[in-house]
Design goal:
Length: about 60
């Protein structure tokens, strides 16, 4: 449970860093995502999810 909370805190730090360092780039990226079809967003999300799970598995083993 401690690792999960640490991971969530790290996500918050990274999200905040992106908004702090490049707010205009973040806005442009969000606007571009609004134009993308749902299927394409799901595919991108699935790929990122899979890469994250694979990296987590690799780090833990």
């Amino acid at each position: 449970m401690k690792d999960l909370l640490a991971a969530l805190c790290l996500v918050a730090v990274l999200e905040g860093l992106m908004l702090f360092a490049a707010p205009n780039g973040w806005k442009r990226a969000a606007a571009q995502m609004l134009q993308m079809p749902d299927r394409q967003l799901r595919i991108c999300g699935g790929l990122v999810l899979g890469a994250g799970l694979l990296a987590l598995w690799w780090l833990k083993h």
